[in-house]
Amino acid sequence: MTGPVPPDPVPLLSLRGLSKTYLRRDGLLTRPRAVAAARDVTLDIARGEVLGIVGESGSGKSTVGRMAMRLLEPTAGAVHLDGADITHLSEQALRPLRHKMQMIFQDPSASLNPRQSIRQILTTPLRLRGVAGADATQEMLETLALVGLGPDVLGRAPSTFSGGQRQRLSIARALLMKPELIVADEAVSALDVCVQAQIVNLFRHLRDRFNLSILFIGHDLAVVGVISDRIAVMYRGTLVEIAPTEQLFRRPRHPYTARLLSAEPRRGVLSAPAPPATPAGQHAPDGCVFSARCPHAADACRTRQPALAPVAPGHRAACIRTDLDLEGILPHSN
Ligand SMILES: Nc1ncnc2c1ncn2[C@@H]1O[C@H](COP(=O)(O)OP(=O)(O)OP(=O)(O)O)[C@@H](O)[C@H]1O
């Protein structure tokens, strides 16, 4: 008997109650204070899913991405990859799993060695996988073609490429590790608007082709919305809303999400300005993290942070003002 394929019961990546606290000193003579870069973040990413994380600068997006990659030790919480708890694995024990998780950063120049040719750069992941000789060359060329580059690039140095081409090269290098998960941290933020669209389309194509899971981190809801199946919204280290993309755009349930949406242009999907940054050096209030800026804050909002609670199927929000009818916008056509 055939029927719909049930969803994969084990998410590829599962973040459970992840927190990260830094001690920060604001001046030479001041006492260090604790800064919660991420608080109790719980997220799952299914195989083949693109999960967006959006929020303004300093909201903790990179901290979550780096903890997911086990590049940063969490202060509390757990990271599960394919059902296995990898939170406390040693670097040596992690090594065989590292290839499954690849990270793409905002500035590809920083991760492409300027003294190496593209052939040398792309040889490294192949060597790590034990692929050499003619097989390596063939795989290199196939992967370059996948990211829209030709064989002529192999002898060139990274500095001879544009920003968009360099990002294509870092994606090619990541693909050569045969990853199952890609964490793309502001991977298109530094690019021109039309190049952003091309790279976002490339990520989408690669997801479809390889059933990749992608954690797509960005500050621009319009860009993140184009590629993501679901979006998680962060504010000051706290996950305040998570929903399927269309639902989040159409009917946001947290005032901060509504505010991000109102900063979006109604047309020109990829040209939203960055939202204003969180004021530096301000402590989170005792209550809801957004209460100080929220136009709908009630007294109860200033006394405690609400938990992320279901508001509709697949949709959760950390707001006690469930009575609000917040304004959304029409979703972008994917
Ligand atoms: N090594 C560190 N030491 C102290 N504080 C840190 C450190 N790294 C990050 N932070 C602080 O943690 C908070 C979250 O930073 P994070 O980089 O995760 O935010 P983000 O949303 O990715 O922002 P951006 O896009 O600007 O990087 C910020 O307040 C930041 O200043």
UniProtKB/TrEMBL annotation:
SUPFAM superfamilies: P-loop containing nucleoside triphosphate hydrolases. One of its GO terms (molecular function) is ATP hydrolysis activity. It comes from the Bacteria. Its main location: membrane. It is a peripheral membrane protein. SMART domains: AAA (SM00382). Keywords: ATP-binding, Nucleotide-binding, Transport. GO terms for biological process: peptide transport; transmembrane transport. It is found in: Cell inner membrane. Residues 23-261 form the ABC transporter domain. This is ABC transporter ATP-binding protein. It comes from Gluconacetobacter tumulisoli.
